[in-house]
Amino acid sequence: MPHIWCPGCGNGIVTAALVRAIERADYDQRDVVIVSGIGCSSRAAGYLNFNTLHTTHGRALAFATGLKMARPELKLFVIMGDGDCSAIGGNHFIHSARRNIDLNAIVVNNHIYGMTGGQHSPLTPTGKKATTAPRGTLEREFNLLDLARGAGATFGARGNAAQPRQLEQLITRAANHKGFSLVEALSPCPIAYGRRNKLGGPVDMLKELKESSISIERATSKEETELEGKTITGVIYQDEVPEYAAEYYRSIGKEIPVKSGG
Amino acid sequence: MPETKPVLMQGNEACAEGAISAGVRFYAGYPITPSTEVAERMAARLPDIGGVFIQMEDEIASMAAIIGASIGGMRAITATSGPGFSLKQENIGYAIMAEIPCVIVDVQRMGPSTGVPTAPSQGDVMQARWGTHGDHPIIVFSPASVYETYYLTIAAVNLSQKLRQPVILLLDEVIGHMREKVTIPRDSRLMVEKSSDKVPADYKPYDEKGLTPLVPFGFGHYYHVTGLFHDQYGFPTGDPPQVERSLDRVHEKLEKYRDEVVLTNYIGHKEPRVVIVTYGCTVRSARAVVKKAYWNNREPVGLLSLQTLWPFPDKEVREIAKKADVIIVPEMNMGQIVSEVERHVKGEAEVVPLNRYDGEMISPDQISDIMGRWLS
Fold it and tell me: Cα separation of A118 and B197, whole Å?
């Protein structure tokens, strides 16, 4: 299949995990909608055989909110990149979390703006180089899961492109969660990020992703010092809070159909 | 004829009621003076009729949300004023490109920038035309009364659905906040024009043969929606001939339905020497002048009021120019529609601007002063 992604990119792995998760969740094809923003990973929407909505930069969650409120029976997966979601789309991100609207946000975090050639994003680690931070960025990065939780998100998980099975399970659990779900998928960008920061080729980057990760189940039995430099993966938090679209429809006395029409 | 009831209503409220009569069941918005009553009315009314009201986190999100809802099959509207209208522009372009029906209300206030939030203006005429980037078509209506606001909102919603094209309603603070009698039908369902529900198995949302109805998401017709140039199924393309065809497509539908889209109204002398061409609340002052001069004194004057600003009523203005010696164009801005009038009159008549931009309405006296000079 022709696509725009560079060799060694993690977007294909994350997209495949999403598709397998949708299959696992046993959704009807017609009930599923893929919404995306602007950026490399957001092009995934155009490669999937569902109703797919490729929106404007940063606004995917706002489009998705309108669609979900109009058609609450639909299952929405919202693919965003790190810059798309946390910089230009930051406002929609925190407010979607606050409303606890049942959208499944999949944020492909490769720490860089890839499509425009490697500028730093709010998820670029301090000190890392980018075309717009040639000496290394001085800015601090967001912890996306903490940001979402602070804003009221009720499901937060982290996985990576080096462990696609786990990622698939995390997306499935996000899909089954009623409310705003965030899955942060760490993903390599060897071309626009890895090269500039001397992180090696695609294999090295995937290996590093895997080796630096530790699942939350295993992390709980470790000492704090042992976890230094490690990224914790798995479902980091999950709370039961009323979901916005369901609450709205209940408040106006309108039933939500179980399945979509047609 | 449907049963009707006369009510006293504000322009902003009439806009909300017109939308509901036209089948709108989704409102997303953000508070801004002087448009907030549209949102407040919708917030009160929509839950009772199974509709969705949502106050979004900003103007950009409101515009995005109505597009999302429209793709889901709900008729959707948002309302704002100058600063918010600026913020909505990118997603208005998206709706034009992706051919998603929606209606955007801009209750104009004095600008630029924060300006005078509570003072009326007609300063957004060119922004409504060219606010979003790229070479796009647009439909813009400008009502001159509460009654017109109600019916033009209905027309805007129905046309938007039919042409799969965003429609902008350019109100001004005078029309938005003024209270007038308006007669609305009791059974508002009669105001909803249904678009075709015949869908071929091989559904092409951007069929190169021409306009196709939008089948909402979730009905088993799989297609892509994007702001990128796209093929018949909506998938991105950069192929030059296809890009050109794609842009022609969004323009051609407006040309084809031009006479349904362009609405004007002429009152006055059959062989006028002086004609006022104007729109929005300025029509009211102009009408007072023409009523007095023509109906009372039989002077050779007339008024062409433009309900549609874009596409510009070129034919109608040219017709006037053939008869009249002078066309006066009063506007509450520094001269926006007047250049368009000049462009189409092509020197066949003298075009005289009358501009006011101090946050006050143009008075009938101001118009009759100028008119008198050309009549004597």
Answer: 46
